[in-house]
Amino acid sequence: MAKKESTFGNMLLALLVISLVSSTALGFVYEFTKEPIRMVEINKTNNAIQAVVPEFDNQPAIEAFYVASDLDSLKFYPAKKNGVLVGTSVETYTKKGFSGLIKLMVGFAPDGTIMDITVLQHQETPGLGDKIDKKKSDFSLQFQGKNPETFKMRVKKDRGDVDAITASTISSRAFCDAVQRAYNAYMSTLKK
Amino acid sequence: MNQWKNLTKGFFKENPILVLILGTCPALGTTTSGINGLSMGLATTFVLVGSNIFISLLKDFIPDKVRIPSFIVVIASFVIVVELVMRAYLPELFNTLGIFIPLIVVNCIVLGRAEAFACKNTVLSSAIDGLGMGLGFAMALFILGTIREILGSGSVLGHKFIAGDGMLVFILAPGAFIALGYLIMAVNQLKKKYLKD
Prior knowledge:
The complex is a heterodimer.
Chain A: H1 8-52, E1 65-67, E2 74-81, E3 84-94, E4 102-108, E5 114-121, H2 169-191
Antiparallel strand pairs in A: 1-2, 2-3, 3-4, 4-5
Chain B: H1 2-8, H2 24-30, H3 34-58, H4 67-89, H5 91-97, H6 108-118, H7 123-153, E1 155-156, E2 159-160, H8 173-194
Antiparallel strand pairs in B: 1-2
Helix pairs in contact in B: 1-7, 3-4, 3-6, 3-7, 4-5, 4-6, 6-7
């Protein structure tokens, strides 16, 4: 077969056929992977909830609700055992990270005490800011059992109570900002 | 014999990263550890083989003036397939490689091979060329990633052999440039010594 000449008709035909075939193929792949991707997302959320609140027997992801916050509303996942609230995990975020958005899952006891925190998403510098992740350092463990009402949610440099990560004050501040946001939203639900 | 050359040239003689210096953006960005580098290399290999096969199949059908847009559409489709499959079945890996997967579309190696090789050669040669180039890329990324991991976090393939952190600079971007620079220097020396032609 000889090379097609670059006439208008030929070019139109070639581009049309190529885009048509690729988009059809992509449609199939998308349909095929849609379900597994959704499962992965749900699993991720469930694992994060389980990590930050005590044992529960309801479906927090289904009973989730939104609470208004200063910028954007936060998602609350109530964890109940035998119908009694044992904790609430709050999906919170901050834009003050060193590079991009940081998303956390914070577990609160019914009185507002922090039970545990896990990092859902971050792009902090590997080896420095990524120590906010529990897998990398013990930084996030210091919040366990603290109540932000008495525990000043600021790094020690800013006269708070939080031990910042060495050389990562910005990431530590951002972490505190996200936790404080979750706490404020959580307390606003209690007052109602 | 000729096909063997097509396969092996990607590893040393025309290694995309170390000799041609193409595709350095993902090479520097993803090689914070050996495994990350290797996975990025293998994802690129898949795209490279797929796009090379399709482009050499279509080479007579595509008029010259629209070849670049046609190549890009083919390449982009393969990249999206990789991205979706990775998100569905390898979510952990997708979290680390994240934004670099879509960037394979604009990786100079993929378009470069389409333009320089696949649109002039048979399907079989193109597939082998893609495989060789891709594996050469993966190998270079793995070596670079391993060097950075050893120096930067003091571990090999995720197994730590020192307590605490390594030299942090090697995990960050400047260290990537330094490590790549020394690696290229070493390869050039080897080339001078053993490759006369």
